Amino acid sequence: MIKVKIEGEEREYLQGTTYETIAADYQEKYGGLIGLVLVDGKIRELFKRLQRPCEIRFLTLGDDIGYKTYVRTATMLFLKAVYDVFGPEAAQAARVEYTIGQGHYICAQGQVPPTEESASLLKEKMWDLVERRVPFLKSSYPLEEAMELFRRQGMKDKERLFRYRRSSAVNIYEMEGYYDYYYGYMLPNAGYVKHFDVIPYEEGFLLLLPDKKAPTVVEEFQERKKLFHTLQESDLWGRRVGLETVGEMNDRICQGGLSDLILVQEAEQERRIGEIAKEIANREGVKFVMIAGPSSSGKTTFSHRLSIQLRTLGLTPHPIALDDYFVNREDTPLDENGDYNFECLEAIDVKKFNDDMSRLLRGERVELPTFNFKIGRREYHGNYKKLEPGDVLVIEGIHGLNEKMSYSLPEESKYKIYISALTSINVDGHNRIPTTDGRLLRRMVRDARTRGTSARRTIEMWPSVRRGEEENIFPYQEEADAMFNSALIYELAVLKQYAEPLLFGIGKDVPEYYEAKRLLKFLDYFLGVSSESIPNNSICREFIGGSCFNV
Asked: What number of CA atoms fall less than 13 Å from residue 457's CA on the CB side?
Protein backbone atom coordinates (compact mmCIF):
# COMPACT_ATOMS: atom_id res chain seq x y z
CA MET A 1 0.00 0.00 0.00
CA ILE A 2 1.15 3.54 -0.82
CA LYS A 3 0.32 6.58 1.29
CA VAL A 4 -1.25 9.50 -0.56
CA LYS A 5 -2.06 12.95 0.84
CA ILE A 6 -5.27 14.41 -0.58
CA GLU A 7 -6.92 17.61 0.66
CA GLY A 8 -5.02 17.48 3.96
CA GLU A 9 -5.84 13.84 4.73
CA GLU A 10 -3.80 10.70 4.21
CA ARG A 11 -5.18 7.74 2.27
CA GLU A 12 -3.66 4.44 1.19
CA TYR A 13 -3.97 2.84 -2.23
CA LEU A 14 -2.42 -0.14 -3.92
CA GLN A 15 0.58 0.57 -6.11
CA GLY A 16 -0.59 0.74 -9.73
CA THR A 17 -4.01 2.21 -8.90
CA THR A 18 -5.04 4.64 -11.63
CA TYR A 19 -5.54 8.26 -10.72
CA GLU A 20 -9.00 7.91 -12.27
CA THR A 21 -9.90 5.42 -9.54
CA ILE A 22 -8.60 7.78 -6.85
CA ALA A 23 -10.49 10.72 -8.40
CA ALA A 24 -13.74 8.74 -8.28
CA ASP A 25 -13.47 8.65 -4.46
CA TYR A 26 -13.50 12.47 -4.38
CA GLN A 27 -15.70 13.35 -7.35
CA GLU A 28 -18.82 14.12 -5.30
CA LYS A 29 -16.92 16.92 -3.49
CA TYR A 30 -16.40 18.80 -6.78
CA GLY A 31 -18.94 20.72 -8.81
CA GLY A 32 -17.29 19.83 -12.10
CA LEU A 33 -16.01 16.57 -13.54
CA ILE A 34 -12.41 15.82 -12.54
CA GLY A 35 -10.25 15.60 -15.66
CA LEU A 36 -6.62 15.75 -14.48
CA VAL A 37 -4.57 15.47 -11.29
CA LEU A 38 -1.62 17.35 -9.86
CA VAL A 39 0.85 14.85 -8.41
CA ASP A 40 3.43 16.65 -6.27
CA GLY A 41 2.74 19.71 -8.41
CA LYS A 42 3.07 17.93 -11.78
CA ILE A 43 0.08 17.51 -14.08
CA ARG A 44 -0.82 13.89 -14.76
CA GLU A 45 -3.52 12.27 -16.90
CA LEU A 46 -6.07 10.12 -15.13
CA PHE A 47 -5.01 6.89 -16.85
CA LYS A 48 -1.55 7.19 -15.27
CA ARG A 49 -0.89 4.95 -12.24
CA LEU A 50 0.20 5.58 -8.67
CA GLN A 51 3.83 4.49 -8.14
CA ARG A 52 5.09 6.21 -4.97
CA PRO A 53 3.94 8.26 -1.95
CA CYS A 54 2.78 11.71 -3.10
CA GLU A 55 0.37 14.59 -2.63
CA ILE A 56 -2.55 14.85 -5.04
CA ARG A 57 -4.80 17.70 -6.11
CA PHE A 58 -7.59 17.53 -8.67
CA LEU A 59 -8.35 19.68 -11.73
CA THR A 60 -11.89 19.77 -13.13
CA LEU A 61 -13.15 20.54 -16.62
CA GLY A 62 -14.05 23.98 -15.29
CA ASP A 63 -10.37 24.79 -14.74
CA ASP A 64 -8.52 26.29 -17.68
CA ILE A 65 -6.19 23.30 -18.10
CA GLY A 66 -9.06 20.85 -17.66
CA TYR A 67 -11.24 22.66 -20.17
CA LYS A 68 -8.50 22.68 -22.82
CA THR A 69 -8.11 18.95 -22.22
CA TYR A 70 -11.85 18.48 -22.87
CA VAL A 71 -11.61 20.41 -26.15
CA ARG A 72 -8.56 18.40 -27.22
CA THR A 73 -10.24 15.10 -26.37
CA ALA A 74 -13.46 16.04 -28.18
CA THR A 75 -11.44 17.04 -31.24
CA MET A 76 -9.70 13.66 -31.45
CA LEU A 77 -13.06 11.97 -30.90
CA PHE A 78 -14.47 13.90 -33.87
CA LEU A 79 -11.49 13.01 -36.08
CA LYS A 80 -11.78 9.35 -35.06
CA ALA A 81 -15.42 9.50 -36.19
CA VAL A 82 -14.32 10.98 -39.53
CA TYR A 83 -11.76 8.15 -39.82
CA ASP A 84 -14.39 5.47 -39.13
CA VAL A 85 -17.26 6.89 -41.18
CA PHE A 86 -15.50 8.45 -44.17
CA GLY A 87 -12.14 6.66 -44.19
CA PRO A 88 -8.45 7.33 -43.44
CA GLU A 89 -7.99 9.79 -46.32
CA ALA A 90 -10.76 12.01 -44.96
CA ALA A 91 -9.14 12.03 -41.50
CA GLN A 92 -5.76 12.86 -43.07
CA ALA A 93 -7.30 15.77 -44.99
CA ALA A 94 -9.26 17.12 -42.00
CA ARG A 95 -7.91 20.39 -40.68
CA VAL A 96 -8.90 22.02 -37.39
CA GLU A 97 -9.09 25.60 -38.59
CA TYR A 98 -10.34 28.12 -36.03
CA THR A 99 -12.84 28.85 -33.28
CA ILE A 100 -16.05 30.81 -33.84
CA GLY A 101 -17.56 31.39 -30.42
CA GLN A 102 -17.94 27.90 -28.93
CA GLY A 103 -17.76 26.28 -32.37
CA HIS A 104 -14.54 24.66 -33.58
CA TYR A 105 -14.46 24.77 -37.38
CA ILE A 106 -13.06 21.62 -38.97
CA CYS A 107 -12.81 21.23 -42.75
CA ALA A 108 -12.01 17.94 -44.50
CA GLN A 109 -10.81 19.62 -47.73
CA GLY A 110 -13.62 18.20 -49.88
CA GLN A 111 -13.35 14.65 -48.50
CA VAL A 112 -16.58 14.88 -46.45
CA PRO A 113 -19.74 16.57 -47.77
CA PRO A 114 -20.82 19.31 -45.30
CA THR A 115 -24.43 18.16 -45.03
CA GLU A 116 -26.91 17.45 -42.26
CA GLU A 117 -26.66 13.75 -43.13
CA SER A 118 -22.88 13.76 -42.73
CA ALA A 119 -23.14 15.65 -39.43
CA SER A 120 -25.69 13.12 -38.18
CA LEU A 121 -23.43 10.19 -39.13
CA LEU A 122 -20.47 11.77 -37.33
CA LYS A 123 -22.51 12.47 -34.19
CA GLU A 124 -23.86 8.93 -34.21
CA LYS A 125 -20.35 7.50 -34.41
CA MET A 126 -19.07 9.84 -31.69
CA TRP A 127 -21.89 8.78 -29.36
CA ASP A 128 -21.06 5.14 -30.06
CA LEU A 129 -17.49 5.77 -28.90
CA VAL A 130 -18.73 7.73 -25.87
CA GLU A 131 -21.18 5.05 -24.76
CA ARG A 132 -18.52 2.33 -25.12
CA ARG A 133 -16.06 4.52 -23.19
CA VAL A 134 -13.35 3.71 -25.73
CA PRO A 135 -9.98 4.54 -24.15
CA PHE A 136 -7.28 6.89 -25.44
CA LEU A 137 -4.07 4.88 -25.29
CA LYS A 138 -0.89 6.92 -24.90
CA SER A 139 2.48 5.52 -26.00
CA SER A 140 5.95 6.98 -26.33
CA TYR A 141 7.54 6.36 -29.73
CA PRO A 142 11.15 6.94 -30.75
CA LEU A 143 11.23 10.00 -32.99
CA GLU A 144 12.07 8.11 -36.19
CA GLU A 145 9.31 5.55 -35.56
CA ALA A 146 6.78 8.35 -34.96
CA MET A 147 7.77 10.02 -38.22
CA GLU A 148 7.45 6.72 -40.07
CA LEU A 149 4.03 6.06 -38.50
CA PHE A 150 2.60 9.37 -39.72
CA ARG A 151 4.40 9.03 -43.06
CA ARG A 152 2.48 5.78 -43.62
CA GLN A 153 -0.75 7.48 -42.57
CA GLY A 154 -0.18 10.31 -45.05
CA MET A 155 0.05 12.96 -42.32
CA LYS A 156 3.02 14.81 -43.80
CA ASP A 157 2.39 17.85 -41.61
CA LYS A 158 3.22 15.83 -38.47
CA GLU A 159 6.22 14.18 -40.10
CA ARG A 160 7.54 17.64 -41.05
CA LEU A 161 6.86 18.97 -37.53
CA PHE A 162 8.85 16.15 -35.91
CA ARG A 163 11.94 16.91 -38.00
CA TYR A 164 12.56 19.83 -35.68
CA ARG A 165 11.91 18.03 -32.40
CA ARG A 166 14.82 18.21 -29.96
CA SER A 167 13.59 15.30 -27.83
CA SER A 168 14.24 11.71 -28.89
CA ALA A 169 10.69 10.49 -28.27
CA VAL A 170 7.10 11.54 -29.09
CA ASN A 171 3.87 10.76 -27.21
CA ILE A 172 1.16 9.46 -29.54
CA TYR A 173 -2.48 8.69 -28.74
CA GLU A 174 -4.31 5.72 -30.24
CA MET A 175 -8.01 4.98 -30.32
CA GLU A 176 -9.11 1.69 -31.90
CA GLY A 177 -6.51 1.84 -34.64
CA TYR A 178 -6.59 5.60 -35.18
CA TYR A 179 -3.31 7.35 -34.27
CA ASP A 180 -2.84 11.06 -33.69
CA TYR A 181 -0.54 13.54 -32.00
CA TYR A 182 -1.55 16.42 -29.73
CA TYR A 183 0.39 18.90 -27.69
CA GLY A 184 -1.32 18.75 -24.32
CA TYR A 185 -3.17 16.27 -22.15
CA MET A 186 -6.04 13.90 -22.90
CA LEU A 187 -8.96 12.52 -20.88
CA PRO A 188 -8.90 8.76 -20.16
CA ASN A 189 -11.69 7.67 -22.50
CA ALA A 190 -14.45 8.89 -24.78
CA GLY A 191 -17.03 8.55 -22.00
CA TYR A 192 -15.84 11.87 -20.54
CA VAL A 193 -17.06 13.77 -23.63
CA LYS A 194 -20.77 13.89 -22.87
CA HIS A 195 -21.60 17.37 -24.15
CA PHE A 196 -21.12 18.30 -27.81
CA ASP A 197 -22.90 18.83 -31.09
CA VAL A 198 -21.89 18.73 -34.76
CA ILE A 199 -23.44 20.94 -37.44
CA PRO A 200 -22.51 21.51 -41.09
CA TYR A 201 -21.05 24.96 -41.71
CA GLU A 202 -19.69 26.47 -44.91
CA GLU A 203 -17.27 23.89 -46.40
CA GLY A 204 -16.88 21.88 -43.20
CA PHE A 205 -18.37 21.34 -39.77
CA LEU A 206 -18.60 23.07 -36.43
CA LEU A 207 -17.85 20.95 -33.40
CA LEU A 208 -19.89 22.76 -30.76
CA LEU A 209 -18.64 22.42 -27.19
CA PRO A 210 -19.68 23.92 -23.84
CA ASP A 211 -18.18 27.09 -22.42
CA LYS A 212 -15.73 26.66 -19.55
CA LYS A 213 -18.12 28.52 -17.25
CA ALA A 214 -20.96 26.08 -18.03
CA PRO A 215 -19.23 22.78 -18.94
CA THR A 216 -22.48 20.80 -19.26
CA VAL A 217 -24.34 23.18 -21.59
CA VAL A 218 -23.93 23.29 -25.39
CA GLU A 219 -25.50 26.53 -26.51
CA GLU A 220 -27.02 27.19 -29.91
CA PHE A 221 -24.45 28.48 -32.39
CA GLN A 222 -24.41 32.25 -32.83
CA GLU A 223 -23.55 33.24 -36.40
CA ARG A 224 -20.45 35.45 -36.84
CA LYS A 225 -20.10 35.75 -40.59
CA LYS A 226 -17.69 38.69 -40.68
CA LEU A 227 -15.32 37.06 -38.24
CA PHE A 228 -15.44 33.75 -40.11
CA HIS A 229 -14.66 35.32 -43.48
CA THR A 230 -11.81 37.36 -41.99
CA LEU A 231 -10.32 34.15 -40.60
CA GLN A 232 -10.92 32.40 -43.91
CA GLU A 233 -9.13 35.13 -45.88
CA SER A 234 -6.08 34.86 -43.60
CA ASP A 235 -6.10 31.09 -43.94
CA LEU A 236 -6.25 31.31 -47.73
CA TRP A 237 -3.35 33.76 -47.74
CA GLY A 238 -1.29 31.28 -45.72
CA ARG A 239 -2.04 28.58 -48.28
CA ARG A 240 -1.05 30.84 -51.15
CA VAL A 241 2.38 31.47 -49.65
CA GLY A 242 2.76 27.81 -48.63
CA LEU A 243 2.71 28.37 -44.86
CA GLU A 244 -0.13 26.59 -43.07
CA THR A 245 1.80 24.80 -40.32
CA VAL A 246 4.78 25.31 -38.02
CA GLY A 247 6.71 22.60 -39.87
CA GLU A 248 6.39 24.56 -43.12
CA MET A 249 7.46 27.72 -41.29
CA ASN A 250 10.55 25.96 -39.95
CA ASP A 251 11.37 24.69 -43.44
CA ARG A 252 11.18 28.26 -44.77
CA ILE A 253 13.46 29.51 -41.98
CA CYS A 254 16.03 26.82 -42.75
CA GLN A 255 15.91 27.67 -46.45
CA GLY A 256 16.65 31.32 -45.67
CA GLY A 257 13.45 32.65 -47.19
CA LEU A 258 11.89 34.36 -44.19
CA SER A 259 13.08 37.91 -44.93
CA ASP A 260 11.16 37.95 -48.20
CA LEU A 261 8.09 36.50 -46.46
CA ILE A 262 8.21 39.26 -43.85
CA LEU A 263 8.20 41.93 -46.55
CA VAL A 264 5.40 40.21 -48.47
CA GLN A 265 3.13 39.98 -45.44
CA GLU A 266 3.86 43.54 -44.33
CA ALA A 267 2.93 44.67 -47.85
CA GLU A 268 -0.25 42.58 -47.68
CA GLN A 269 -1.26 44.25 -44.41
CA GLU A 270 -0.51 47.70 -45.85
CA ARG A 271 -2.68 46.87 -48.87
CA ARG A 272 -5.59 45.96 -46.57
CA ILE A 273 -5.12 49.11 -44.47
CA GLY A 274 -5.17 51.13 -47.70
CA GLU A 275 -8.44 49.48 -48.74
CA ILE A 276 -10.05 50.41 -45.42
CA ALA A 277 -8.81 54.00 -45.80
CA LYS A 278 -10.39 54.20 -49.26
CA GLU A 279 -13.69 52.91 -47.90
CA ILE A 280 -13.62 55.64 -45.24
CA ALA A 281 -12.75 58.36 -47.76
CA ASN A 282 -15.45 57.24 -50.20
CA ARG A 283 -18.21 57.13 -47.58
CA GLU A 284 -19.79 60.55 -47.38
CA GLY A 285 -20.11 62.14 -43.97
CA VAL A 286 -17.65 60.00 -41.99
CA LYS A 287 -16.09 62.04 -39.18
CA PHE A 288 -15.42 59.37 -36.55
CA VAL A 289 -13.33 56.26 -37.20
CA MET A 290 -14.01 53.97 -34.22
CA ILE A 291 -11.32 51.30 -33.66
CA ALA A 292 -11.81 48.51 -31.12
CA GLY A 293 -10.25 45.15 -30.44
CA PRO A 294 -9.02 42.89 -27.64
CA SER A 295 -5.78 43.30 -25.73
CA SER A 296 -2.53 43.24 -27.73
CA SER A 297 -4.22 43.44 -31.11
CA GLY A 298 -1.90 46.23 -32.26
CA LYS A 299 -4.59 48.92 -32.21
CA THR A 300 -2.12 51.77 -31.69
CA THR A 301 0.18 50.89 -34.61
CA PHE A 302 -2.84 50.17 -36.80
CA SER A 303 -4.37 53.58 -36.05
CA HIS A 304 -1.05 55.28 -36.97
CA ARG A 305 -0.76 53.38 -40.24
CA LEU A 306 -4.42 53.99 -41.07
CA SER A 307 -3.91 57.71 -40.41
CA ILE A 308 -1.01 57.78 -42.88
CA GLN A 309 -3.17 56.11 -45.54
CA LEU A 310 -5.98 58.60 -44.86
CA ARG A 311 -3.53 61.46 -45.39
CA THR A 312 -2.61 60.09 -48.82
CA LEU A 313 -6.29 60.42 -49.72
CA GLY A 314 -6.46 64.07 -48.70
CA LEU A 315 -7.99 63.62 -45.25
CA THR A 316 -6.57 64.97 -41.99
CA PRO A 317 -6.83 62.39 -39.18
CA HIS A 318 -6.70 63.32 -35.48
CA PRO A 319 -6.10 60.53 -32.93
CA ILE A 320 -8.26 60.32 -29.80
CA ALA A 321 -7.89 57.67 -27.09
CA LEU A 322 -11.04 56.68 -25.24
CA ASP A 323 -8.78 56.09 -22.23
CA ASP A 324 -8.52 59.88 -21.90
CA TYR A 325 -12.21 59.85 -20.94
CA PHE A 326 -11.74 57.57 -17.94
CA VAL A 327 -13.64 58.77 -14.88
CA ASN A 328 -11.46 59.92 -12.00
CA ARG A 329 -9.96 57.07 -10.02
CA GLU A 330 -12.26 57.49 -7.00
CA ASP A 331 -15.27 57.10 -9.31
CA THR A 332 -13.99 53.96 -11.04
CA PRO A 333 -16.25 50.91 -10.48
CA LEU A 334 -14.87 47.93 -8.57
CA ASP A 335 -14.97 44.29 -9.68
CA GLU A 336 -16.00 41.29 -7.60
CA ASN A 337 -12.54 41.20 -6.00
CA GLY A 338 -12.62 44.84 -4.98
CA ASP A 339 -10.11 45.89 -7.66
CA TYR A 340 -10.66 48.79 -10.05
CA ASN A 341 -12.57 47.62 -13.13
CA PHE A 342 -11.09 49.63 -15.98
CA GLU A 343 -12.67 47.33 -18.57
CA CYS A 344 -16.35 48.16 -18.01
CA LEU A 345 -18.21 50.92 -19.85
CA GLU A 346 -18.93 52.68 -16.55
CA ALA A 347 -15.19 53.35 -16.18
CA ILE A 348 -15.59 55.84 -19.06
CA ASP A 349 -17.31 59.23 -18.79
CA VAL A 350 -19.60 58.39 -21.69
CA LYS A 351 -21.69 61.54 -21.36
CA LYS A 352 -18.64 63.82 -21.50
CA PHE A 353 -17.31 61.98 -24.54
CA ASN A 354 -20.63 62.34 -26.38
CA ASP A 355 -20.93 66.02 -25.42
CA ASP A 356 -17.42 66.76 -26.76
CA MET A 357 -17.90 64.77 -29.98
CA SER A 358 -21.30 66.30 -30.66
CA ARG A 359 -19.90 69.80 -30.23
CA LEU A 360 -17.06 68.98 -32.62
CA LEU A 361 -19.58 67.68 -35.15
CA ARG A 362 -21.45 70.99 -34.92
CA GLY A 363 -18.24 72.82 -35.79
CA GLU A 364 -17.42 74.09 -32.31
CA ARG A 365 -13.91 74.41 -30.87
CA VAL A 366 -13.47 71.89 -28.02
CA GLU A 367 -10.73 71.35 -25.46
CA LEU A 368 -10.07 67.61 -25.17
CA PRO A 369 -8.87 65.93 -21.95
CA THR A 370 -5.78 63.87 -21.18
CA PHE A 371 -5.95 61.23 -18.48
CA ASN A 372 -3.10 61.28 -15.98
CA PHE A 373 -2.65 57.63 -15.06
CA LYS A 374 -0.20 58.41 -12.25
CA ILE A 375 -2.71 60.40 -10.22
CA GLY A 376 -5.86 58.86 -11.73
CA ARG A 377 -7.53 62.08 -12.93
CA ARG A 378 -8.52 63.80 -16.17
CA GLU A 379 -6.54 66.93 -16.97
CA TYR A 380 -6.74 69.73 -19.54
CA HIS A 381 -3.61 71.10 -21.19
CA GLY A 382 -4.95 73.27 -24.00
CA ASN A 383 -5.53 70.44 -26.51
CA TYR A 384 -8.16 72.27 -28.58
CA LYS A 385 -9.72 70.80 -31.69
CA LYS A 386 -12.15 72.01 -34.32
CA LEU A 387 -13.29 69.82 -37.18
CA GLU A 388 -12.53 71.21 -40.62
CA PRO A 389 -14.09 69.79 -43.82
CA GLY A 390 -11.34 67.19 -44.43
CA ASP A 391 -10.81 66.23 -40.79
CA VAL A 392 -11.63 62.84 -39.25
CA LEU A 393 -11.19 61.71 -35.66
CA VAL A 394 -9.49 58.33 -35.28
CA ILE A 395 -10.84 57.03 -31.96
CA GLU A 396 -9.28 53.99 -30.33
CA GLY A 397 -10.60 52.08 -27.31
CA ILE A 398 -12.13 48.79 -26.25
CA HIS A 399 -15.69 50.19 -26.29
CA GLY A 400 -15.43 51.75 -29.74
CA LEU A 401 -17.98 49.40 -31.34
CA ASN A 402 -20.51 49.63 -28.52
CA GLU A 403 -23.38 51.87 -29.59
CA LYS A 404 -23.77 53.07 -25.99
CA MET A 405 -20.30 54.61 -26.22
CA SER A 406 -21.29 56.97 -29.04
CA TYR A 407 -25.08 57.11 -28.65
CA SER A 408 -25.41 60.80 -29.62
CA LEU A 409 -23.44 60.59 -32.88
CA PRO A 410 -25.31 59.97 -36.14
CA GLU A 411 -24.66 56.49 -37.53
CA GLU A 412 -23.59 57.87 -40.90
CA SER A 413 -20.80 59.85 -39.20
CA LYS A 414 -19.15 56.70 -37.85
CA TYR A 415 -16.97 54.05 -39.49
CA LYS A 416 -16.29 51.09 -37.18
CA ILE A 417 -13.24 48.84 -37.35
CA TYR A 418 -12.66 45.64 -35.41
CA ILE A 419 -9.02 44.57 -35.10
CA SER A 420 -7.64 41.38 -33.60
CA ALA A 421 -4.63 39.08 -33.94
CA LEU A 422 -6.31 36.06 -35.52
CA THR A 423 -3.53 33.50 -35.79
CA SER A 424 -3.73 31.63 -39.10
CA ILE A 425 -0.84 29.18 -38.74
CA ASN A 426 -1.35 25.80 -37.01
CA VAL A 427 1.09 23.53 -35.20
CA ASP A 428 -0.17 20.86 -37.62
CA GLY A 429 -3.48 20.01 -39.24
CA HIS A 430 -5.06 18.82 -36.00
CA ASN A 431 -3.44 21.20 -33.50
CA ARG A 432 -4.62 24.76 -33.94
CA ILE A 433 -2.90 27.69 -32.28
CA PRO A 434 -5.44 29.67 -30.21
CA THR A 435 -5.47 33.36 -31.10
CA THR A 436 -5.32 34.10 -27.37
CA ASP A 437 -1.87 32.47 -27.13
CA GLY A 438 -0.43 34.86 -29.69
CA ARG A 439 -1.95 37.87 -27.94
CA LEU A 440 -0.79 36.71 -24.51
CA LEU A 441 2.78 36.36 -25.76
CA ARG A 442 2.60 39.79 -27.39
CA ARG A 443 1.37 41.37 -24.17
CA MET A 444 3.93 39.55 -22.05
CA VAL A 445 6.82 40.82 -24.18
CA ARG A 446 5.48 44.38 -24.37
CA ASP A 447 4.63 44.60 -20.65
CA ALA A 448 8.11 43.44 -19.68
CA ARG A 449 9.73 45.93 -22.06
CA THR A 450 7.62 49.02 -21.38
CA ARG A 451 6.32 48.56 -17.84
CA GLY A 452 8.76 46.16 -16.19
CA THR A 453 5.88 43.78 -15.55
CA SER A 454 6.88 40.16 -14.92
CA ALA A 455 5.58 37.34 -17.09
CA ARG A 456 4.02 35.85 -13.99
CA ARG A 457 1.97 39.01 -13.40
CA THR A 458 0.87 39.16 -17.05
CA ILE A 459 -0.33 35.55 -16.89
CA GLU A 460 -2.02 36.21 -13.54
CA MET A 461 -3.98 39.17 -14.98
CA TRP A 462 -4.86 37.44 -18.26
CA PRO A 463 -8.13 35.77 -17.09
CA SER A 464 -9.44 39.18 -15.96
CA VAL A 465 -8.40 40.72 -19.28
CA ARG A 466 -10.18 37.93 -21.15
CA ARG A 467 -13.37 38.41 -19.13
CA GLY A 468 -13.35 42.08 -20.03
CA GLU A 469 -12.97 41.24 -23.72
CA GLU A 470 -15.81 38.74 -23.65
CA GLU A 471 -18.11 41.26 -21.98
CA ASN A 472 -17.13 44.46 -23.76
CA ILE A 473 -15.59 43.66 -27.15
CA PHE A 474 -16.58 40.32 -28.67
CA PRO A 475 -20.36 40.90 -28.48
CA TYR A 476 -19.99 43.92 -30.78
CA GLN A 477 -17.44 42.65 -33.32
CA GLU A 478 -20.05 41.85 -35.98
CA GLU A 479 -21.18 45.50 -35.86
CA ALA A 480 -17.93 46.57 -37.51
CA ASP A 481 -17.83 48.00 -41.02
CA ALA A 482 -14.41 46.40 -41.50
CA MET A 483 -12.32 43.74 -39.77
CA PHE A 484 -8.54 43.71 -39.76
CA ASN A 485 -6.38 40.75 -38.81
CA SER A 486 -3.17 42.04 -37.25
CA ALA A 487 -1.56 38.61 -36.77
CA LEU A 488 1.69 38.10 -38.67
CA ILE A 489 2.38 34.58 -39.83
CA TYR A 490 6.04 34.85 -38.83
CA GLU A 491 5.68 36.62 -35.47
CA LEU A 492 5.68 33.63 -33.10
CA ALA A 493 9.13 32.64 -34.40
CA VAL A 494 10.25 36.19 -33.53
CA LEU A 495 8.46 36.46 -30.17
CA LYS A 496 10.08 33.18 -29.09
CA GLN A 497 13.43 34.91 -28.37
CA TYR A 498 11.78 37.55 -26.21
CA ALA A 499 9.22 35.38 -24.40
CA GLU A 500 11.25 32.32 -23.44
CA PRO A 501 13.57 34.04 -20.91
CA LEU A 502 10.54 35.66 -19.29
CA LEU A 503 8.69 32.36 -19.02
CA PHE A 504 11.72 30.49 -17.68
CA GLY A 505 11.79 33.05 -14.87
CA ILE A 506 8.50 31.77 -13.43
CA GLY A 507 9.16 29.41 -10.53
CA LYS A 508 7.51 26.04 -9.89
CA ASP A 509 6.00 27.25 -6.62
CA VAL A 510 3.40 29.59 -8.16
CA PRO A 511 0.10 28.79 -9.95
CA GLU A 512 1.23 30.56 -13.14
CA TYR A 513 4.00 27.97 -13.60
CA TYR A 514 1.67 25.55 -15.41
CA GLU A 515 0.68 28.10 -18.03
CA ALA A 516 4.33 29.13 -18.42
CA LYS A 517 5.32 25.51 -18.95
CA ARG A 518 2.59 25.05 -21.57
CA LEU A 519 3.70 28.15 -23.47
CA LEU A 520 7.35 27.07 -23.35
CA LYS A 521 6.43 23.68 -24.80
CA PHE A 522 4.41 25.43 -27.49
CA LEU A 523 7.27 27.79 -28.41
CA ASP A 524 9.63 24.82 -28.59
CA TYR A 525 7.97 23.83 -31.88
CA PHE A 526 9.28 27.00 -33.54
CA LEU A 527 12.74 27.76 -34.80
CA GLY A 528 13.61 31.24 -33.63
CA VAL A 529 14.47 34.06 -36.02
CA SER A 530 16.01 37.50 -35.63
CA SER A 531 13.84 40.63 -35.68
CA GLU A 532 16.31 42.66 -37.77
CA SER A 533 14.33 42.22 -41.02
CA ILE A 534 11.08 43.53 -39.52
CA PRO A 535 10.20 47.06 -40.77
CA ASN A 536 9.99 49.77 -38.11
CA ASN A 537 6.32 50.45 -38.88
CA SER A 538 5.34 46.80 -38.36
CA ILE A 539 2.64 45.92 -35.83
CA CYS A 540 5.16 43.45 -34.40
CA ARG A 541 7.37 46.42 -33.41
CA GLU A 542 4.66 47.62 -31.01
CA PHE A 543 5.54 44.62 -28.84
CA ILE A 544 9.23 43.87 -29.37
CA GLY A 545 10.34 47.51 -29.67
CA GLY A 546 11.96 49.57 -32.39
CA SER A 547 8.76 51.12 -33.79
CA CYS A 548 8.85 54.43 -35.62
CA PHE A 549 5.56 55.29 -33.92
CA ASN A 550 5.05 56.42 -30.34
CA VAL A 551 3.77 53.11 -29.03
From this structure: 8
